[in-house]
Amino acid sequence: MVGSTFDGMTQQGVRWSADQVLALAPDAASRKAGSKLGAAGPWSEAGSCGEGSVWGLCKGSGSKPYQTVVDLADASGPAYKCSCPSRKFPCKHALGLLLLWAGGDGAVPPGQPPEWAGQWIEGRRQRATEKRAADAAGSPSGSADPEAARRRAERRAERITAGATELEQRLADLLRGGLAGAEQVGYGMWEETAARMVDAQAPGLAARVRELGAIPSTGPGWPVRLLEEFALLHLLDQGWLRREGLPEGLAATVRSRIGLPTSADGPPVRDRWLVLAQYDTADARLTTRRIWLYGAESDRTALLLSYGAAGRAPEVALPVGLTLEAEVSAYPGAGQPRAALGEQFTPPAPAGIRPPGVTTAQAAARYGEALRDDPWLDSVPVTLDRVVPTPDGDSWQLADADGDAALPLTPTARSRPGLWRLVALSGGAPVKVFGECGHLGFTPLTAWPEGVGEAVALC
User: Fold this and answer.
1) Low-confidence ranges of the chain (pLDDT < 50)
2) Which of 89, 240, 322, 403 has the most crowded CB, counting CB atoms within 10 A?
């Protein structure tokens, strides 16, 4: 099936765009370096085949050229192999090779892979086949003693309950002394409290405590913001302490927000999934990748989360604007969009699918409705139809082209270069924009021009 898909792509001359290739870059430096290698000059013996692989030799600083090969036939995203010493995936040579291939000017002609490329492609596809067979058969070694698992879960729940009870007392003490005191205690108190929540095996509580510690003295109105976050943390604490009386969907959301591990146990939904957006966030410990998908038949939006060690991008990469046929299973929790990517039937390929859009007023209402299921929700995925980016004093907003309502852009969106890409794409005309709508405003992630045109990533 994969082979026939790529044969059709080759015959019809359908290739990825440069933006879709550069969306794979792990950072801005790789994007810039890869762009410089997207011309034929440094490349020799480049080629591609209908089964979805691209290869070539890239001249470097040494006497031997770097051997670079990319396997495009993996439905979870391209896989890369390069003889250069870079630890980035993809490296600049893989990005340059894909840009050369995407140009479609004959610099990467069809052919059979050389031995060094063919062996790697065949080996990884064989391993992938064996892994799928093992997963389908089930792994006896992965089964655990149910009674031991139950006892471990009970011990962890007891630790979390003790931590949540302690946190309630600390919050009450701080409020009793007045919010002004939060400005005097310094960040050390918050970090010590967060460490106590880590010891209690409640990483979700620890993360929210750290966020509290970052609010004091952050500008006008910080006491109000601190009180709001206090209330949400108190609500999560109480949700855990009284979880036995909650509806199952809300109880699952509380467990997830506390930080308990869950698995995607929803029924698999097979669909043609459009990659709406992909972006990374990083801290000192972890890089988190968020990939938004839209199901053309199911009309649902799903979020894939993947993780990489600090300083390294996660391996799963799905360029914006491509579609793949796959199964997706939802995680538990009321109104939770997170899902897991299951069996994949086709590799990502270009398609003309666009998600349906709503007005800015409908987007705000959708976020309000979602808060009933998850009061700790920062934002919801929304596609806005026919909006125009317009300045609003020192800020920006997305205004309905056919109405008088608008959504302000979040501070994060206003500081990104993607804002100017959106303004340039619009040129004063309506555009369709996908992004995240929440209490701080709207963060645009992808846009489409009116009529015909490819998706433009804004992050």
Assistant:
1) 1-13, 139-143
2) 240
